C-alpha cells in the first residue's frame, strides 16, 4: 500500500513550528540554529513541490486534522494555487534566511546567537504555510496572527527608538485589521453556523443579498489592509523601510501576498460572481496609480520600493476584479512572480545600503564601477518587475492584460492603466539606476546608527549574501523560462477557483 | 549606571539566566517594599496553586480545565510569588531559563501532533490509553493529554518570560535610574 499523500499536508506548518522550538531550546548554539533553519525550510520547499505535482495531477489534497471530517473538523487543503504559492514563498523564505545568516556571520562572527531571530523567522514561515493551506476561516485568522505576531517581533527587534515608533504604526494597523477580521468571522458564523470555507460556499449563497454583500465587503477590507490595497495601504511605506534588509525583504515578498491570497480565495470561493467587479476595478486603478506615482516622489530607496510594491498589488487586484478564469489565473501567476521579485529587490537594496551606508538616492553613485555584480542583479530584477520581455514580469502581465481586454469596455480601460503603471514603474526603477549606479563614485557614509543590528557602510559583504540574492534572481528567471508549464498550472488553478467544484468535492466529499 | 555598563555586567544574550539560589526571599533587596502578610500568604498558597494547576491539567479532557487553564493558574502562582518577593523572590523559585521552558512545551505539543503520522494516521489524531496500575486501579487517558502538557509548559514559560522581561526588567531599569533603592 502506498502511503497516503494527504498525510504530508500538515507538515509545511508543523515542521517550521518544530524547528522554531528547537532553535528556542538550543538558543545557546548558533550553529544548531542555522542548520535547523535551513534544513527545515529546505524540506518544506521539497514537500511543497511534491504537493504541487500531486495537486496538479490528481486535484486538491485534503488533510483532516485529527481525523475529524469537515465541516466539524479543520481541513488543510493543498490545491494548485496554494501549493504553487507555498512553493514560491518557501523558496523566498529560504533564500532570505541564507542572506540573513551570512549577514550576521559577517558582522558579528560565527559565535553570536540570537534567542529571537531564528524562532520568530520559522514561526512566521509556519504562519504563512498555514494561511495558504487552511480550508477554514477561523484557522486562517490563527495563521494571520501567528504570522503577524512573529513579524511584530522581527520588525521591532534590536533597533532604534525612531524605528520602533515606525514599527508601532504597523503593529497598530495590523491589530486593527485582526479585530475587524475576528468581527467578520463572528458575523459569518452567526449568519451561517459554520466557518469551514467549503461549507460556507454553499451557505453564503443562501443568505439575503444585502447580508452577503456586507460580509464580502468586510472580508475585502480586512484582506485589503493586509494586502496594502489603496486607500488602506498607508501603513506600508511607513513601516517596511524601517525594518532591517532581510526582514523587509521577507515582509515585502510574503505578507502582502498572503493577504491577497486570502482575498482571492475567499472572494472566488464564497462570493462568486459572473461579471467583472467594478468596485474592485476602481480600487485596482487607484492602487496602481497611487503606488506608481508615490514611488516617483521618493528619495529613500526602500520607500520607493514600498510604493512600487503597493502599485503592483493593484495588478493582482485587477486580475481578481475581472473575475474570469484568465484573470484569476493571471493574478495567481503575478503573485508568484511578485513574491520573488519584490523580495529580490529589497535584498538588493540591503546590499546597496550596506555598501553606501545610506538609503538616500541623492547620496550615492557610481556603484556600476565599484560593485558591478550588484548592478547586474539590480538590472535583471528591475527589468523583471517592470515587466520587460522576456522576463517573468512580462509573462505575468501579459496574462493579466489578455484577461482584461476580453470581457468589456471597463476592464479594457483598466488594462490600459496597467500599461501606464508599468511604464511609471520602469521610470522609477530607471531613476534608481541613474542615481545609484551611474555617475561619480561616492565614498560610503558612516553608519548613522551604530547601536542597531544592521551594519551599513562596509565593503565587507560575504559572497553568500550575493549568492542568496542571485538565487532569487534565478528563481525569477526560472519563472520566465518555465512560463509555459507554469501558466498552464495557473490556468488550471484559475478554472478550478471559479468552478469551485473540485475544491468543494475534495473537502466535503461527493454529497455537496 | 549607564546602559553600557549594565550591558557589560549582563550580556544581552544572558539577561534571562537566573543568578539567584533557591528560596531566599528573606534576602529581598528592596526590603522597604515588603509586606509580611502577602509574603506569608504566598508561602502557603504557592504550592497549593501549583497542585491545583496540575489537577486542572489532568482532568482537562472530560471536565473544565486543560493545559491552557492549568498553565495560567500555575503562571498566576508565579505572579503572586513575584508580587510578594519581587524579581529576587521569583528568581529564587525558578532556576530554568524561561525560553527553554516555553520552547520545550511547544516542542512536546508539536511532536504530539506529528506522532500519529508515524502510524499512518492524520496529524493531531489522538488515541485512548488505559493502564492497570497496582494499588491505584485502572488509569485511562487520551494521548492528547501530552499536547495539554506541552501547552501547560508553554503557558508557564510565557508567563515567566513576561515577569522577567516586563517585571524584573522594569525593576532593574528603575533601580538604574535611581527611582528605587
Structural class of chain A: mainly alpha
Fraction of residues in H or I helices of chain A: over 70%
Strand arrangement, major sheet of chain B: 1-2
N-to-C SSE string of chain B, H for helix and E for strand: HHHHEEH
Mean pLDDT of chain B: 79
Can you give keywords for this protein?
heterodimer; A: 512 residues; mainly alpha; two-stranded antiparallel ribbon; 20 helices; 2 strands; 2% strand; B: 181 residues; 7% strand; elongated; disordered N terminus
Describe this structure in words.
- The complex is a heterodimer of chains A (512) and B (181).
- Chain A is mainly alpha-helical.
- Helix content of chain A is 74%, strand content 2%.
- Chain A has helices at residues 11-25, 30-58, 80-108, 117-133, 137-156, 161-192, 197-204, 209-227, 236-239, 245-270, 278-296, 301-322, 325-356, 367-370, 372-386, 392-405, 409-437, 463-481, 483-499, 501-508; strands at 61-64, 75-78.
- Chain A has a two-stranded antiparallel sheet with strand order 1-2.
- In chain A, helix 3 runs antiparallel to helix 18 (463-481).
- The radius of gyration of chain A is 22 Å and the shape is globular.
- Chain B is mostly helical and 181 residues long.
- Chain B has one domain.
- In chain B, 60% of the residues lie in helices and 7% in strands.
- Chain B has 5 helices and 2 strands; from the N terminus they run ααααββα.
- Chain B has a two-stranded antiparallel ribbon.
- In chain B, helix 2 packs antiparallel against helix 3 (67-93), helix 3 runs parallel beside helix 5 (144-176) and helix 4 (98-114) runs antiparallel to helix 5.
- Chain B is elongated and about 60 Å long.
- The model of chain B is unreliable at 1-8 and 20-25 (pLDDT under 50).
- At the A-B interface, helix 1 of A face helix 4 of B.
Amino acid at each position: 500500500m502506498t502511503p497516503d499523500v494527504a498525510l504530508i499536508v500538515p507538515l509545511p506548518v508543523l515542521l517550521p513550528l518544530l524547528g522554531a522550538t528547537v532553535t528556542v531550546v538550543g538558543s545557546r548554539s548558533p550553529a544548531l540554529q542555522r542548520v535547523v533553519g535551513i534544513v527545515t525550510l529546505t524540506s518544506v520547499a521539497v514537500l511543497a513541490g511534491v504537493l504541487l505535482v500531486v495537486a496538479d495531477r490528481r486535484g486538491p489534497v485534503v488533510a483532516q486534522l485529527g481525523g475529524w471530517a469537515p465541516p466539524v473538523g479543520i481541513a488543510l487543503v493543498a490545491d494548485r494555487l496554494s501549493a504553487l504559492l507555498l512553493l514560491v514563498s518557501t523558496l523566498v523564505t529560504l533564500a532570505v534566511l541564507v542572506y540573513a545568516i551570512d549577514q550576521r556571520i559577517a558582522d558579528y562572527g560565527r559565535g553570536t546567537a540570537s534567542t529571537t531571530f531564528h524562532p520568530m523567522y520559522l514561526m512566521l514561515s509556519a504562519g504563512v504555510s498555514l494561511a495558504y493551506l487552511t480550508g477554514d476561516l477561523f484557522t486562517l485568522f490563527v495563521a494571520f496572527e501567528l504570522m503577524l505576531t512573529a513579524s511584530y517581533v522581527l520588525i521591532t527587534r534590536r533597533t532604534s527608538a525612531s524605528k520602533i515608533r515606525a514599527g508601532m504604526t504597523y503593529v497598530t494597523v495590523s491589530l486593527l485589521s485582526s479585530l475587524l477580521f475576528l468581527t467578520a468571522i463572528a458575523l459569518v458564523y452567526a449568519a451561517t453556523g459554520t466557518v469551514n470555507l467549503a461549507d460556507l460556499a454553499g451557505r453564503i449563497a443562501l443568505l439575503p443579498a444585502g447580508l452577503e454583500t456586507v460580509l464580502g465587503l468586510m472580508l475585502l477590507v480586512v484582506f485589503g489592509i493586509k494586502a496594502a490595497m489603496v486607500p488602506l495601504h498607508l501603513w506600508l511605506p511607513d513601516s517596511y523601510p524601517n525594518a532591517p534588509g532581510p526582514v523587509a525583504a521577507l515582509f515585502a515578498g510574503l505578507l502582502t501576498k498572503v493577504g491577497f491570497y486570502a482575498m482571492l480565495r475567499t472572494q472566488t470561493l464564497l462570493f462568486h460572481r459572473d461579471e467583472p467587479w467594478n468596485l474592485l476595478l476602481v480600487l485596482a486603478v487607484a492602487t496602481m496609480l497611487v503606488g506608481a506615482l508615490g514611488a516617483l516622489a521618493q528619495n529613500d530607496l526602500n520607500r520607493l520600493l514600498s510604493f512600487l510594491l503597493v502599485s503592483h498589488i493593484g495588478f493582482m487586484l485587477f486580475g481578481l476584479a475581472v473575475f474570469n478564469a484568465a484573470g484569476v489565473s493571471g493574478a495567481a501567476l503575478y503573485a508568484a512572480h511578485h513574491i520573488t521579485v519584490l523580495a529580490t529587490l529589497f535584498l538588493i537594496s540591503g546590499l546597496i545600503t550596506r555598501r553606501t551606508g545610506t538609503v538616500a538616492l541623492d547620496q550615492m553613485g557610481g556603484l556600476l564601477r565599484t560593485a558591478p555584480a550588484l548592478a547586474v542583479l539590480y538590472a535583471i530584477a528591475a527589468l523583471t518587475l517592470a515587466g520587460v520581455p522576456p522576463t517573468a514580469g512580462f509573462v505575468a502581465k501579459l496574462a493579466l492584460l489578455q484577461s482584461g481586454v476580453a470581457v468589456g469596455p471597463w476592464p479594457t480601460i483598466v488594462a490600459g492603466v496597467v500599461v501606464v503603471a508599468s511604464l511609471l514603474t520602469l521610470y522609477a526603477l530607471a531613476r534608481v539606476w541613474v542615481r545609484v549606479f551611474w555617475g561619480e563614485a561616492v565614498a560610503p557614509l558612516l553608519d548613522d546608527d551604530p547601536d542597531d543590528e544592521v551594519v551599513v557602510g562596509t565593503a565587507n559583504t560575504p559572497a553568500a549574501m550575493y549568492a542568496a540574492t542571485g538565487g532569487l534572481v534565478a528563481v525569477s528567471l526560472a519563472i520566465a523560462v518555465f512560463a509555459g508549464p507554469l501558466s498552464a498550472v495557473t490556468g488550471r488553478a484559475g478554472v478550478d477557483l471559479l468552478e469551485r467544484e473540485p475544491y468543494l468535492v475534495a473537502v466535503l466529499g461527493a454529497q455537496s | 549606571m549607564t546602559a553600557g555598563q549594565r550591558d557589560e555586567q549582563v550580556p544581552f544574550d544572558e539577561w534571562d539566566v537566573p543568578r539567584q539560589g533557591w528560596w531566599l526571599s528573606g534576602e529581598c533587596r528592596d526590603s522597604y517594599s515588603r509586606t509580611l502578610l502577602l509574603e506569608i500568604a504566598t508561602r502557603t498558597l504557592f504550592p497549593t496553586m501549583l497542585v491545583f494547576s496540575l489537577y486542572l491539567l489532568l482532568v482537562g479532557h472530560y471536565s473544565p480545565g486543560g493545559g491552557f487553564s492549568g498553565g495560567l493558574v500555575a503562571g498566576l502562582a508565579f505572579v503572586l510569588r513575584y508580587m510578594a518577593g519581587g524579581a529576587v523572590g521569583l528568581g529564587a523559585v525558578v532556576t530554568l531559563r524561561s525560553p527553554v521552558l516555553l520552547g520545550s512545551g511547544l516542542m512536546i505539543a508539536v511532536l504530539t501532533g506529528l506522532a500519529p503520522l508515524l502510524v499512518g494516521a492524520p496529524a493531531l489524531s489522538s488515541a485512548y490509553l488505559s493502564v492497570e496500575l497496582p494499588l491505584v486501579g485502572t488509569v485511562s487517558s487520551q494521548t492528547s493529554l501530552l499536547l495539554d502538557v506541552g501547552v501547560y509548559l508553554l503557558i508557564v514559560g510565557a508567563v515567566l518570560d513576561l515577569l522577567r522581561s516586563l517585571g524584573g526588567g522594569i525593576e532593574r531599569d528603575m533601580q538604574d535610574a535611581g527611582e528605587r533603592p
